[in-house]
Amino acid sequence: MKRKLSEEDLQAAERLREIWNYKRGMLGLTQEKAADIMGYNTQGAVSHYLNGVTPLNTDAVIKFASLLMVSPEEIRPELSELFSYVRKGPPPPSEHEEPGWNHLTSQHKELIRLFNKLPESEKVKLLQQLEVTTENYDKLLEELLVLRRKSSNSAQ
C-alpha cells in the first residue's frame, strides 16, 4: 500500500510538472523517452511522478534534474542541505582511471562519453549502423584495390 503524499510531495510534483512542461519541447522529450533514459520500465512511472501519484524520492529527483538539466533543488528545495553536503564530499573515483584510458584521443573519449549517455536501445542501433558503415567502406576499399591491380596489370 502506498503512503499518502504529503504537502511537500505534492508541491515537488507540481514544480517537477512545471519544469517538465517548460523543458520537454526544448529537449525533445516524451514520457516514453524519459522513462527509457532514466531506466524506468514504462512511461507510467514518469507519469506517476509528474502527476503526484508517486512521491519523488531522492533518486527520482536526481534523475529528473539530470534529464531536465536543472539543479535537484529546483524540484525539491527542502533537500538543498543534503545536496550541498553531497557536493562538498570527496569526488567519486573516476571511472576512467584505468591505464589504457590515457592512451585514448580526446575524440575517442568524447565518443565514449556520448555513447554512455544513450539509452540501451539507441546504443544497439548505433553499433549496428557503425557495423554496416564500416562493412560498406571495407567493400569499397576492396573494389578500389581490385581496380588498381587491373589497371597496373594492363599497363604492363
UniProtKB/TrEMBL annotation:
Q: Which UniProt keywords apply?
A: Coiled coil
Coiled coil region boundaries: 123-150
Please name the Gene3D superfamilies in this protein's record.
lambda repressor-like DNA-binding domains
**UniProt-listed InterPro entries:** Cro/C1-type_HTH, Lambda_DNA-bd_dom_sf
**A GO MF label:** DNA binding
**Which domain of life does the UniProt lineage start with?**
Bacteria
Asked if the record carries the keyword Cell inner membrane, the reply is no
Q: Does the keyword GTP-binding apply?
A: no
SUPFAM superfamilies, sorted: lambda repressor-like DNA-binding domains (SSF47413)
Extent of the signal sequence: none
Q: Which residues form the HTH cro/C1-type domain?
A: 24-75
**Annotated SMART domains:** HTH_XRE (SM00530)
| The protein's name | XRE family transcriptional regulator
In which organism is this protein found? Answer: Yersinia aleksiciae
